[in-house]
User: Fold these one by one.
Assistant:
Number 1:
Amino acid sequence: MTAFLGVESSLTGRRWVGPSIDIDRAAEALEQSTTLPRAVCQLLARRGIGAQEAESFLAPALRDLLPDPRGLKDMEKAATRFLKAAKSGEKIAIFADYDVDGGSSAALLLTWLRAMNRDATLYVPDRIDEGYGPNEEAMAQLASQHDLIVCVDCGTLSHDPIAAATAADVVVLDHHLGGETLPDCHAVVNPNRQDETGDLAHLCAAAVVFLMLVEVNRQLREDGTQGPDLMAMLDLVALATVADVAPLIGVNRALVRQGLKVMARRDRPGIVALSDISRMDTAPNSYHLGFLLGPRVNAGGRIGKADLGARLLSTPDMHEAKAMAERLDQLNTERRDIEASVRAAAMAQAEERGLDAPLVWAAGENWHPGVVGIVASRLKEATNRPAIVIGFDEDGIGKGSGRSVSGIDLGASIQRLASEGLLVKGGGHKMAAGLTVERDKLEPAMERLSELLAQQGADRIGPSDLKLDGMLMPGAASIDLVNQLETAGPFGASAPAPRFAFPDVEIRFAKRIGDSHLKVTFGDGLNARLEAICFGAFDTDLGPALENHKGARFHLAGRLDINTWGGRQTVQLRLEDAAPAG
């Protein structure tokens, strides 16, 4: 296919790819058979949505898409045991992962229990002292004081720690890739168990927890009792789904869409407080969840008190929520500073090692384990290669995190390394994984991982293409158009927001903002202007080229959104790439 607008290598080194002839034809057919604007039809055509499916796609109904919880193995067992504990006043402990998905999962259970006039002990392990998932000491201690332990967003590979909980029943509600055997416990509900069909493999842990509560409420109804309002809890499921980068397909689209509506009601103190401190001044969307709320909830688990995020999301007290939101906002600022330092060192090390290998990796002494995952994401984005970043402590134990690219299953390869004895432990899913490695095994482990990833074709991946949904002129970028495009949302993983090219435009204003961002105003020579913001522009050649444009014309590419400032709304372009015109 010919490069879109002839851009074979943009200022960020990417080839621009536009809609195929088939997609253009499908979009034209949609436009003729519906009342939808061309830009929306182009987006639907790229997703493979025809005229008969368009209406249901644009208005996904949760009642039509929500799967029967009993379709997951052990679900009925897990729900029955949880309900028995809640009804009979047994002592319940919730062992949660320290990220947004774990915190949201815990908050779902705590909110449901509170509505039933019950409570539970929340336990979130310290990332540095305890690491990811259940550990034997914590599980044994919890078991000695509780009748039921519910592990959320963790536990599927925790055979020994769960075996240590001899005095309590354990239920696992997880979504991470399962091994050949499951821990010996009361129930393991996980769409990524090896004996599952995989039809619901895209669910995050909070969605699995939500499905269990659907089953619990069903069992309550069978006994003639009305359970708590689950629809009011979908804000937590939406936050977790987007922040955990779960694909926004199938039921996930409906969960997030409905969850955003719930969130807009501002009923949950923790999310209200976090939204306010994040200066969200419009109705929430998936961008807000992924880039404003999610990082702040995660900040507690990364560099602060591990349970802060879960406590914020579950508290009914607005005063307490405000105090916790302020602390998380402070921690997020500290996290950014730590991340910047580690990122610079990791990138320098990776560049020295070479960026065209099947695996890009870096390791350093005392790199904070709370930021290695974010830095791995940055390396992956910069190189379009699977990336691993590892921080070693004074005892020679390295804790690392990895991020992958489409088509390369990193979690399975990490699990293979662990089974071969090259890692202390490791696991995850296709796009993200965690590991623990001893210093003397670092080089052989990374060499072996590189081999496994090469077998999947990671060494043959070129620079990522920039996929575009079509062309627009500045005058066509209206608030109405942005609102119409939003009807095809929510946007996120596996459902990218529409991206348009603005061809042959002139830069009328360019100003550097902070250290690396750029603000631009551009036009087409017909008195139509559009403002753009480019985050991280000066991390590439993009910033300098546009700032020092010297009257040259450019093709610009990015995503449209609505900027609200002082009560006034305007359309702006989130500029992602550019190329000289002509």
Note: The chain is about 40% helix and 20% strand.
Number 2:
Amino acid sequence: MSLPEVDVCIIGSGAGGAPMALELGRAGFKVVVLEKGPHYRPQDFIHDEILNSRRNFFMPMPWEEPHLFRHGARERYEKSSAAWTANCVGGGTVHMSGFFYRLKPVDFRLRSTLGAVPGSTVEDWPISYEELAPFYDKAEVELGVSGHAVPHPFAEPRAGPYPLPPLDVHPVAGEIDKACAAMGWHALPTARGIISRPYKGRAPCAYCALCGSYGCEMGAKSGTNASLIPAAIATGNVSVRPGCMARSVEVDRRGRARGVVYVGPDGVTQEQPAKVVIVSCTAVESARLLLNSTSSRFPRGLANGSGLVGRNLTFSSFGEAQATFRLSRQAQQRPWLKDPAPFVNRSIQDFYLMPDARFGFRKGGTLGFMWTHPNPIHAATGLAGSGASAVFGKELKDRMRAYRDSRILQFEVYAEFLPTPGTYVTVEPGVKDRYGIPVAAITVERHPQDLVATRFLVDRGEEVLLRLEPDEVKRTNTTGETTILQHGTCRFGDDASASVLDKYCRAHEVPNLYVVDGSFMPTGGSVPSTLTIAANSFRVADHLVRSLRSGARAGG
């Protein structure tokens, strides 16, 4: 049975897809949203570490739906769950921690600021911070963001305060403030995509401490499942179809997108015709979908005449260190250690952009402070170790007793991940997922400046931790990448030979095809990119609605 044509078919319901659905639905257009995963309800979100973090509640198992991953083109691919985000209505915004930062003006002109960087394909954005700023405002209001904007030398321009006051924080935030002030640095309140007060029919945060890796049973976390998708459905113009895996975007004889072929929850393959197709599956999965959408018109993949679909992949450079406070030794002197408040919500951005390259880099990043995640199984397996360093018996019990006697403060580094020719996504025809679709194959070759900058930032964060006089400071990572933060595989730009999309995220070669997840971003910035993806999606939606209303070709 053929399905009736709709105005717009959107693939994905996370930070990119949901704003498009909401704005198009509000404008009166008929929209179908295809979502690969289930539509969870608040009662489905329970505090079960095995369910949420060690099963396929959010992410598929690598033996069913692998990503292939390798560091360097000479290495062998390994099956992995790296670079998956939540497969459910709301996407990665469901299990996010909700650290909501804006990019800074420099992130839009990084090539102009740094000049050509040997070994990197860094480019400026075709838009400015000023063009995106009104849509940052809109995204914060529509999603629900809690925070307190303070003046500091590195602040990006804002038109006004956050829509909600900041969440309550642990007293250690004040200790971090004092430590930074003593060094002449600026500790900043971290805005969160978690509502601090009742907002648009949603209940406020209950301070349960289980944000990252979990869904929010209160609806207080501002995932699109709790904020934008219900509002989109309420327009009466948006239909969300969970359990629908997109196989390909099909084109007509003119090379225009005509619809999406997908496998439904009943296992039946069918095509949803649409006048406009919007792809928003994550930077890795969107590239995979386009590369698998081959035809006589696009033999190398849809919209891939430039050969750039899947190229210029970036993640976020990751570093981390931890400070351990033994309660039996320190609680009397520092009674705040026993305060159960879960949020620290402090960041440092003094080293976001260095004035010169004396330390071996110029683009740095952000330090975000938090208590370690309370997942007990994850903690226990870390304490036990593995391989030759594994322990058991009395030594393991002693480690676990010490852990129970501790509060562990940590910071994470979000640093620039420079795009390189050696970091990209392809598809591997010889390895298929449970749907029979060739899987994404990811190759990562880091730019050496990334690692220099991350080490520098970890050094600075450890200086803050040491000023708090913990019992131990432990460096845990200086060379990692946060693969849930992904960008660049369909970068936008004005030159069709050097980009996949135009400034409104419309494919240069397919006039009714848009890509609105992090794929469009030429650079990832030095903060989590969720808010930027949502803001850009609202910007693109504004343009598309005006274009469709004017009767012009989609996006023309």
Note: The chain has twelve helices and 17 strands.
